[in-house]
Amino acid sequence: MLCAGPGGGSNDVQWCFSQVKGAIDDDVAEADIISTVEFNQSGELLATGDKGGRVVIFQQEQESKNKLQCRGEYNVYSTFQSHEPEFDYLKSLEIEEKINKIRWLPQKNAAHFLLSTNDKTIKLWKISERDKRPEGYNLKEEDGQYRDPNTVTTLRVPVFRPMDLMVEASPRRVFANAHTYHINSISVNSDCETYLSADDLRVNLWHLEITDRSFNIVDIKPANMEDLTEVITAAEFHPNQCNTFVYSSSKGTIRLCDMRAAALCDSHAKLFEEPEDPNNRSFFSEIISSISDVKFSHSGRYMMTRDYLSVKIWDLNMESRPVETYQVHEYLRSKLCSLYENDCIFDKFECCWNGNDSVVMTGSYNNFFRMFDRGYQQDMTLEASRENSKPRSVLKPRKVSTGGKRKKDEISVDSLDFNKKILHTAWHPLDNIIAVATTNNLYIFQDKLI
Amino acid sequence: MEVNIEARRILAVSISKLYASRTQRGGLRLHRSLLLSLVMRSARDIYHSSRESEVPSGAQSAPEEPMDTSSNPGEQTRLPEAQTEPQPVLNSTETAPEEPDNTEDGCDSEIIEDKENLSPAKQSRKRRGKASAAPDFLPSKRARLEPGEERYEVPLGSCRAGESLTTLHTPPFRSKGLRRRMVQPSASLACCH
């Protein structure tokens, strides 16, 4: 299947630029800011959501005959407006149209289905192809105008004739009015019938066919809001066990819940928490321990969490501490005050696994992204930038200089651009192809095929 | 001293972020508000402890503890883990309904100094002249009641309750005389059920 390894050392995987999508313009329109990236289960489709409420789906072309590039390119397949801005008149609040998450449903027929959500409403979209149309109506002309029935002298049976491929996206379900707080996660269950949605204080369980009700399965809202100490930051179903899900908190804990135990899973089956290192205590300890993303491995044996400075891999059988911890940008620990002032400390980075769970990836600042090879214990920093965007050019590993002496080709911490952040990345489930979102551009990289 | 200055600066930054977040599109973000309040609480605690260490005091008495735990007045006897229980931002800007009206005059630094020297019964809630140069954008801490709630007096004779209340929630510095009424961010949160 795949080669493991991010590169370097004995396992030489080199990453090459493949494509970049989006405007070259430096002046970024706010609506174009990418807010989520997701491959479907086959990797053929790649969906992005943006702040303007739009979803753009790219499709991988069939493998080309060109041996140099055996993998097909991703081209735009469908674009549609998923969510519009709304106004909650009761609370005098605007509801943003920004797409927070997209999750694909496993494919069951020719059509593709995905769930997209903004802060309040989840929608199920059907994306289907139409490449034939009926022609030869008796009562209609080809242009659609109705014929005078008196002029019809013979009858014919309409037939399907080929037409230019048209991809249609239609909303099949709208799941609304179930969340008081802002939705941060959706996750499709392995039973392919239900899915969960999570906001700051609650997790709801839905049936894909039923839109007028959902079950609340986790509620951490205290009786008195002044007693609030933590919020839910992410939630996900187990990839194989349809009764199991996890949710992470702003306090750095992860709770695993079993829906068989009770209807309301307020009490966890397992609590994953690592004791805080007292040496690292600061004003901002609590903020940086807040978990921004949680992802199960494909195998279901492990889960990965991302907090502000690190990525942690947990074995589901051990709650006391993670089995692996990778520092993403430890050099920022001494800069937390500045990062608090410029709001960067609130950035929510996501993380992802490769197809065989041997490598994990997450984003950082200056359009850097990091890969950690779990087997070879190697890490690599790469950059998504227009300068490195010649087709099939190999990406050079980057390094941030942390000591006093800056080596050649290294970048000092102070010259990092904190406006250029990579929050969303995705890894093709079956191949070494990655999608990395900068502010408004989507980069696609693939490993160099020998 | 440096820690003191740093703590004050962080408090100032936090409060301005709090104000700014209320005008954001999409409404008040609960997660962000909670994190802001945690930072504010840490900064406030450090400010207090650094002020304490500056003032020579023979009587390091138990009254200092309620300040450190910073828990709700009604929950002094709660679980030990409430020690580090963070308060949501609403607390720092809106005193709990149970608090009496006159705690709003209490300024932490002054009260602490008084506590060291006076018995609780003589504890003055009035702001002393020796005020730290406070940024004037910090709001006065006027307790805001939800509709239907009533204020009630906390007996001053109960020293523990009195101390815990005065050490709570009030911002460590205010400008003299300038009373600013702040719109409570909890308004929108309180509507959420």
Automatic annotation (TrEMBL), chain A:
Region annotation Disordered: where it falls in the sequence: 383-406
PROSITE patterns per UniProt: PR55_1 (PS01024), PR55_2 (PS01025)
Entry-linked Gene3D superfamilies: YVTN repeat-like/Quinoprotein amine dehydrogenase
Keywords: Repeat, WD repeat
Gene Ontology annotations of biological process type: blood vessel lumenization
Gene Ontology cellular-component terms listed: protein phosphatase type 2A complex
The keyword Isomerase is assigned to this record: no
Cited InterPro entries: PP2A_PR55, PP2A_PR55_CS, WD40/YVTN_repeat-like_dom_sf, WD40_repeat_dom_sf, WD40_rpt
SUPFAM superfamilies (UniProt xref): WD40 repeat-like
Domain of life: Eukaryota
Record-level Gene Ontology MF annotations: protein phosphatase regulator activity
Keyword DNA-binding: no
Family: Belongs to the phosphatase 2A regulatory subunit B family.
Subunit composition and interactions: PP2A consists of a common heterodimeric core enzyme, composed of a 36 kDa catalytic subunit (subunit C) and a 65 kDa constant regulatory subunit (PR65 or subunit A), that associates with a variety of regulatory subunits.
Protein name in UniProt: Serine/threonine-protein phosphatase 2A 55 kDa regulatory subunit B
From TrEMBL, chain B:
Comp. bias (Polar residues): 84-95
Entry-linked Pfam families: IER
Region Disordered, residue ranges: 49-149
Signal peptide: none
Listed Acidic residues bias regions: 96-111
Domain of life assignment: Eukaryota
Family: Belongs to the IER family.
The protein, known as: Immediate early response 2b
